[in-house]
Automatic annotation (TrEMBL):
This protein's name: Interleukin-22 receptor subunit alpha-2
InterPro entries, A to Z: FN3_dom, FN3_sf, Ig-like_fold, Interferon/interleukin_rcp_dom, Type-II_Cytokine-TF_Rcpt
Family matches, as PANTHER family: INTERFERON/INTERLEUKIN RECEPTOR (PTHR20859), INTERLEUKIN-22 RECEPTOR SUBUNIT ALPHA-2 (PTHR20859:SF51)
Described purpose of this protein according to its UniProt entry: Receptor for IL22. Binds to IL22, prevents interaction with the functional IL-22R complex and blocks the activity of IL22 (in vitro). May play an important role as an IL22 antagonist in the regulation of inflammatory responses.
Organism field: Sclerurus mexicanus (tawny-throated leaftosser)
Domain Fibronectin type-III: 5-96
GO CC entries: extracellular region; plasma membrane
Chief localization: secreted
Gene name for this UniProt entry: Il22ra2
Phylogenetic placement of the source organism: Eukaryota, Metazoa, Chordata, Craniata, Vertebrata
Interferon/interleukin receptor domain residues: 108-212
Length: 214
C-alpha cells in the first residue's frame, strides 16, 4: 500500500490560477498525478490579500470538476485576491495549492464591443456597445465595463476585394456611433472592432465581422 504521505503528494492540485474575462473570474486547476482518479474531490477557499481568515466557497466544497466561479467573491475589483484548492481521495487530504495573487481590475481580459452596422447612401454607420460586467445595478441590468475602465473603441474596415489581413483603422475614440463616409458602391466592406484600455495598454480580440454591400 502507498503511504498516506505519497498519496497526499500525488493528488495535490497543480497550476491553480485565475482566468478572467470582463470581470467574470474563475479559479482553474489541474489534477495531481493521481488526480485522474474519478472519485477525487476538491475543496476551494478564497481571501482578500491581507485578511488572515480564509473563507470556504460552499458551491465548490467537495466537487469533482476542476473549476470554481469566484466572480461574486472577487467583486472588490481593485483588491488583490487569492484562491487555494486541496484534494481528497480515499479519505486522504492533500495540502493546499495556492494561486498567484489576482487583482481583477488589473488582470481581467476585456472582450470586444458588440458591433451593429447599417448603411445609408455611400456611408456606413457603426454602432458599438461595450462588453458588460457580471455585476448588476439595483434594477437588475448588468453594469457595462465602461463604468470601471476608461475604454476606447478601435474600428477597422476590411475591403473584401483586398486581403483579409488588410484591416484599416478608421476610428479610435469613445463614441458609440460613428459614420464612415466616401465608400464605393457595389463593394463589400466588413467592419471589426476592438476595445482598447490605454491605461493598461491592452486590447481585446477583434469582434466578429459585420459585412455590408453598399
Amino acid at each position: 500500500l502507498m503511504e498516506n504521505q505519497d498519496l497526499q503528494d500525488l493528488i495535490k492540485p497543480q497550476k491553480v490560477e485565475f482566468h478572467s474575462l470582463n470581470l467574470n473570474s474563475t479559479l482553474h486547476w489541474q489534477p495531481g498525478w493521481a488526480g485522474e482518479a474519478r472519485d477525487t474531490l476538491y475543496f476551494v477557499q478564497y481571501k482578500v490579500y491581507g485578511q488572515s481568515m480564509w473563507q470556504n466557497k460552499d458551491d465548490c466544497w467537495g466537487i469533482q470538476r476542476h473549476v470554481c466561479d469566484l466572480t461574486h467573491e472577487t467583486s472588490d475589483i481593485q483588491e488583490p485576491h487569492y484562491g487555494r484548492v486541496k484534494a481528497a481521495l480515499a479519505g486522504v487530504y492533500s495540502n493546499w495549492s495556492l494561486s498567484c495573487r489576482f487583482t481583477p481590475w488589473r488582470e481581467t481580459m476585456i472582450g470586444p464591443p458588440t458591433v451593429t452596422v447599417v448603411h445609408s447612401n455611400k456611408s456606413v454607420i457603426v454602432k458599438l456597445q461595450a462588453p458588460r460586467s457580471p455585476y448588476k445595478r439595483k434594477r437588475g441590468s448588468k453594469i457595462p465595463m465602461t463604468n470601471y475602465y476608461d475604454l476606447l473603441y478601435q474600428v477597422f474596415i476590411i475591403n473584401n476585394l483586398l486581403d483579409e489581413q488588410h484591416r484599416v483603422l478608421v476610428y479610435e475614440g469613445k463614441d458609440k456611433v460613428i459614420k464612415i463616409k466616401d465608400l464605393r458602391p457595389g463593394v463589400s466592406y466588413c467592419i471589426v472592432a476592438k476595445t482598447y484600455l490605454p491605461m493598461l495598454d491592452r486590447s481585446s480580440a477583434y469582434s466578429s465581422r459585420q459585412c455590408i454591400v453598399l
